[in-house]
Amino acid sequence: MRLPAFLTVLLYVAHTSLAALAPPFPSINLTSTTPISPFDLPALLPVPSQPDVSASELIRTTLGHYPLSIDGKNFGALALVFAADAVANYSAPLGVLTPLTTIQAVLASSLEKVTTQHALSTQVIEVLSESEAFSVTYYTATHFGMGVYEGEIAVAYGQYQDYWVLQHESWKIQTRNLVYMGATDWEFLDLHLDAFKFSRDLVTAVS
Q1: Which of 24, 75, 116, 185 has its CA 20 to 30 A from that of 69?
Q2: What percent of the chain has pLDDT over 70?
Q3: Are residues 168 and 142 in contact, defined by beta-carbon separation less than 8 angstroms?
Q4: Residue 45 in 3-state DSSP?
């Protein structure tokens, strides 16, 4: 057997063996409130050969209104970002919130005694079709205590995993999973435990 042919056979055998050993890629449900493992994200979001720049930019601009709404405490403006029947898993202690009116009410109550500054950084947007998209966006959320908690600061690091739908020519988040990354140092626990307890009671009341 000639050397080039022999090498071709070896490469084929090696590729087949590696494929057999590789674990199957998990089935992903983008509308689920179970976050996607960070390990799976690179394979799930490949670099597109022909990216939809227009849709991606509209999604990026829409998501930019989330920090503006939260930090400005204009929770009504979250209607610019979320669909009316959106489902958002904000992880413990807030958990799964739906619909938009509940998301607005719970976020407003849980952040009542702090001011915030949300910064968005690393981001990948995958446009799935003319009316669907998925994005992963890293965030840093800094919380500044007010009143008796003035001077207290808590910083949260994580990512938003968002499933988007196109509604009336506007992109809206249909499903969100907030994933914390690293430790979050909640020093002023009395403030946040009271706020979160009230938030959970509110969820129960409006559900």
Answers
A1: 185
A2: 75
A3: no
A4: coil
Q: What is the pTM of this model?
A: 0.80
Rounded Cα–Cα distance for residues 187 and 189 (Å): 6
Residue pair 134/52 in contact (Cβ under 8 Å)? The answer is no
> What DSSP state is assigned to residue 68?
H
Which residue from 23, 186, 166, 39 is spatially nearest to 113, judged by alpha carbons?
186
DSSP letters of 144-167?
EE-GGGTT-EEEEEEEEEEEEEEE
Contact 162, 168 (CB under 8 A): no
* Segment 59-104, tens digit of pLDDT: 999 999 999 999 999 999 999 999 999 999 999 889 999 999 999 9
Do you know the residue count of the chain? 207
Q: How many CA atoms lie within 13 A of 35 on its CB side?
A: 20
Listed residue (141, 134, 147) closest to 188, CA to CA: 147
The span from the CA of 202 to the CA of 207, in Å, is 8
**What structural domains does the chain harbor?**
28-206 (3.10.450.50)
Chain segment 107-159, per-residue pLDDT in tens: 999 999 999 999 999 999 999 999 999 999 999 999 998 988 888 888 999 99
Contact 74, 163 (CB under 8 A): no
